[in-house]
What we know:
Elements: H1 14-18, H2 23-31, E1 35-41, E2 46-52, E3 59-65, H3 66-73, H4 81-97, E4 103-106, H5 117-127, H6 141-145, H7 149-163
Parallel strand pairs: 1-4
Antiparallel strand pairs: 1-2, 2-3
Amino acid sequence: MSRAKTPTYKVPFRRRKEGATNYRKRLALVKSGKTRMVVRKTNKGIIVQFVNFDSKGDKTLITVSGETLRKEFKWPSKRNSSTAYLAGLLGGKKAAEKGVKEFVLDLGLHESTKGSVLYAALKGAADSGLSASFDEGMVPMDKLENVKEEYSKLFEEVKKKILS
């Protein structure tokens, strides 16, 4: 009987094993050649990043979170559609200043559901002047048009400040 020359078990990538990365999705997004708009939900807020692929490691161009909105505009940082929209709007404006013209949305392992805060961030980036192809039906327009009364005035002020 001969000895085994190679192992019969192949160890999967660490991030795949942890359930942190879907490499098929990532490869498809990277192959597009466009800047990725990475949107992540945390327990307390929203994070929007514009990322370019580099063979040595991804390069983050812009990072905007609810905390950024709180510090710059005194916006109450929460995980809702209004905050996601404003974060996308500010991130899109800053990305346009860095030369980004179009992007592709990267949701990571979050599920793509109609009316999600992830699509509110996408709508904000699209309204800032960047181009992306997406279905308008996925955007939570009812939540963006009917902001709570106590925040509606502040929402419009922050939106005007970002766009000016």
